[in-house]
Amino acid sequence: MSLTAKLLLSPLLVAQALHTRRKLPRLPEAEGERRGMVGEGVPLRLLIAGDSSAAGVGVVSQRDALAGQLSARLAEACVARVHWRLVAQSGLTTAQTLHLLQREVSGHDTQRDGPRHFDIAVVVTGVNDVVDQVPSHRAVGAREALANWLRNAHGVHHVVFAPLPPVHEFPGLPQPLRWVAGSDARRHDAAMARWAATRGDVSRVEMEVQLNRGVMASDGFHPGEPVYRQCAGAIAHHIATRVWPHVPKETAS
C-alpha cells in the first residue's frame, strides 16, 4: 500500500485500531504442558517459539494447538521420537521472541526443561510486527538475529519460519484496517521469503490458509482448531520432506 494512501486513511485507521483493541476479547493461551515426548524412532529435538499463535490462543488445550498437533504429526511423518518444547507468549514481535528465548532457554534447567540443544526450531511470528508497525527490513533483521542465535547458542540445524497469515481475511478486523494490515502482512511475508531463500539453514513454509469465522477463534483474530490442524500438517510435511532428511542424524542422537 502506498504511503499516500496510508496518510490519507491514517485518522480512520488509528480510530479503528483503538476501537478494535478495546472490542476484541482477550483470549487466554492454551492450557497444558509446554514440553513433552511423542512417537518412537530416531530422536528429533524440536523447539517451537513465537507469539500467540505459537502459544495456542484460540483453543483450550495445547493438544489442539500448534505444538501438540505439530509434534504428533512430525512423530508420524518422520518416524521419530519427538522431544518438543514450546516457548511462546502472546503479543510478541520477532525481536521480542528472541529476547524471550534468551531468558527462557539459555538459563533453563536441563533436568526440568528437557534438552538444551535442538535439531529443528519452528518460529511463528510476524503479525505483531505488522501491528506494531515494525518496518519489514527490521523484522527480517530480527529473524536473522533469531536464527543465528538458535544456531550458535543451541545447535539448531534448521530454523523453519511459518508464513504470515492472510491478515486481509481476519473477520475480527474492520475495513479499511483489515485491507491495510493485510497489505503490510503480505509485504512482510514477501521480505521474509526473499531472505529465507538466501540461507541454507532457514526456510519458510508454503501454505494456503483460507480464513473465515467458521475456522477462527471467537475473536475473529486468532486461529481456531481447524487452522492449527492445517498449519501443523503443512509444517510437518515441510519438515519431513525438506528439512529432516538433511539433518545429520548424529546431531539428533
Task: Describe the protein in words.
With 253 residues, the chain is an alpha/beta fold. The protein has a single domain, classed as SGNH hydrolase (Rossmann fold). Helix content is 46%, strand content 13%. The protein is built from nine helices and six strands. Helix 4 runs parallel beside helix 7 and helix 7 packs across helix 8. The protein is globular and about 55 Å long. The model has no long low-confidence stretch (mean pLDDT 91).
Per-chain topology:
Blueprint: H1 3-23, E1 35-38, E2 42-50, H2 52-55, H3 66-78, E3 80-88, H4 94-104, H5 110-113, E4 120-124, H6 127-131, H7 136-154, E5 158-161, H8 177-196, E6 202-204, H9 225-243
Parallel strand pairs: 2-3, 2-4, 4-5, 5-6
Antiparallel strand pairs: 1-3
Helix pairs in contact: 3-9, 4-7, 7-8
* Residue share in β-strands: 5-15%
Integer tally of domains: 1
How many distinct helices? 9
Return the CATH class: Alpha Beta
The CATH superfamily bears the name SGNH hydrolase
User: What's the main sheet like?
Assistant: 6 strands, mixed
**CATH architecture annotation name:** 3-Layer(aba) Sandwich
Strand tally is 6
Low-confidence stretches: none
Q: Compute the gyration radius: what is it?
A: 18 Å
Helix % is: 40-55%
Strand order in the largest sheet: 1-3-2-4-5-6
